[in-house]
Specification:
Elements (H helix, E strand, L loop, with lengths): L3 E9 L5 E8 L5 E5 L6 H16 L7 H9 L8 H22 L3 H4 L8 E9 L2 H14 L3 E6 L7 E2 L16 E2 L1 H19 L4 E5 L6 H10 L7 E3 L10 H7 L4 E3 L6 H9 L5 E2 L3 H4 L2 H14 L2 E2 L9 H13 L6 E2 L5 H5 L6 E3 L2 E3 L12 H6 L3 H5 L18
Length: 405
């Protein structure tokens, strides 16, 4: 069997936040690629791969995917962290890519074959007001998206109080808009009331709270949204407060999707096994790759929970393709988050998934079916953008306290 001879990291996108892992073998022309992208810590993930994981992989049999995953899982001793999971996820995807190429089959065929002809996705609609939001929702519905996410502006939109109206202490820290739980849990049901009156009951709609709320406010919002028949309510709680899902389940039937920030099995395991959520939204790379995610999908099937692997605007075409292969072969699949890329980004990844009419289409090429054109990928980099730090949004309440995430 083929042996690993080299592991390389390729940074791309204008800001350098995409990292593609390339695992090379001693068989001429045989290699695999995987996603190890982290928007906030790209250099740290690359260091983890190059300094810690790659030296342990040289000479190993590429066929031993499960053995390699289990070995690398504890290679840093402390485990289930976002950085090491992402590094491991990139390696794992690349090994599945190689496995498919050796078998001359797409990865979804190795996972048991297709359960569906294509992958339905949900679109992201946003607007500064109801009129503009309605217009964007209608646009996506006409394109063929079966589900549309509805946001008033950015994350937390509808809950931000203008600086001149926020009740602040005299020594307030800054004058930015302040997030207010009560304003949010009043505005979002009003938003859906207006949308249902205009669009009717048929469109399948979701909303992303992005973990902005206090736990008790999350329970209240879930109850207030029950009359509007959401497809799901996304990330209503932070990972630190997932025990509150039990109370939400006792109070209402609003479907819950959770997991964008999950990296530890003990975060999703109780939610699935106790049927406290309806959709699990872990990012494939953040869970550690295809190997653990196919096990999550099997667990979901046993407990009647669906998958909705997380994508988002910072994700790359390789991670998206890994999600598509899981979606194609998993009966427990529910919906896939869509992602759009610029034309020059698509050009750097020949064989990428095709998004058309609200559905993602894989191809029948061996492995993941996607490759990286290294020259085009590195040409996307802008050194000034690469050097700029990218911390997460710093939202605050009127008293100055931080709003997670």
């Amino acid at each position: 069997m083929a042996k690993i001879t080299e592991v390389r990291c390729i940074r791309t996108r204008i800001n350098g936040t995409w990292t593609i892992v390339k695992v090379l073998t001693d068989q001429p022309g045989l290699y695999g690629i995987g996603s190890a992208s982290d928007h906030y810590h790209p250099k740290a993930v690359i260091d983890t791969i190059e300094d810690l994981i790659a030296p342990q992989l040289i000479g190993r049999d590429v066929a031993q995917i499960e053995n390699i995953w289990q070995t690398m899982y504890s290679v840093a001793y402390w485990r289930n962290g976002a950085l090491t999971n992402t590094a491991l996820g990139g390696i794992d995807m690349a090994l599945w890519d190689i496995k498919g190429k050796e078998a001359n089959l797409p990865v979804y065929q190795l996972l048991g074959g297709a359960c569906r002809s294509a992958v339905p996705c949900y679109a992201h609609a946003g607007g500064a007001d109801i009129d503009s939001l309605e217009q964007e929702i209608r646009m996506y519905l006409e394109e063929g998206y079966p589900v549309v996410r509805c946001q008033l502006g950015g994350y937390g939109g509808g809950g931000f109080v203008p600086p001149e109206k926020a009740v602040r202490p005299r020594n307030a820290w800054g004058q930015q808009p302040a997030f207010d739980d009560e304003a949010y849990i009043r505005m979002i049901p009003e938003m859906f009331e207006a949308l249902r009156s205009r669009l009717g009951p048929e469109p399948k709609l979701t909303h992303d709270v992005h973990e902005h709320l206090r736990p008790q406010s999350a329970v209240t919002l879930s109850k207030r949204l029950e009359p509007y028949d959401l497809f799901f309510l996304e990330d209503v709680l932070s990972p630190e407060q997932i025990a509150w899902f039990r109370l939400i389940r006792e109070q209402c039937t609003t479907p819950q999707a959770m997991g964008e920030l999950f990296v530890n099995p003990q975060e999703w395991l109780p939610l699935i096994s106790e049927r406290l959520i309806d959709y699990i939204r872990v990012r494939v790379s953040k869970a550690g790759g295809i190997t653990p995610c196919r096990k999550i999908a099997a667990l979901c099937e046993a407990f009647g929970v669906n998958t909705a692997w997380q994508e988002g605007g910072d994700n790359d075409p390789v991670n998206q393709m890994a999600a598509v292969h899981l979606d194609m072969a998993s009966w427990s699949f529910g919906i896939q988050e869509e992602n759009h890329f610029r034309s020059e980004e698509y050009d750097a990844f020949p064989g990428h998934a095709v998004l058309e009419g609200g559905h993602l289409y894989a191809n029948d090429a061996p492995g993941l079916g996607i490759d990286i054109h290294e020259e085009r990928a590195t040409a996307l980099l802008d050194p000034a953008e690469v050097a700029r730090p990218r911390p997460a949004a710093e939202d605050r309440r009127a008293d100055g306290s931080v709003v997670r995430p």
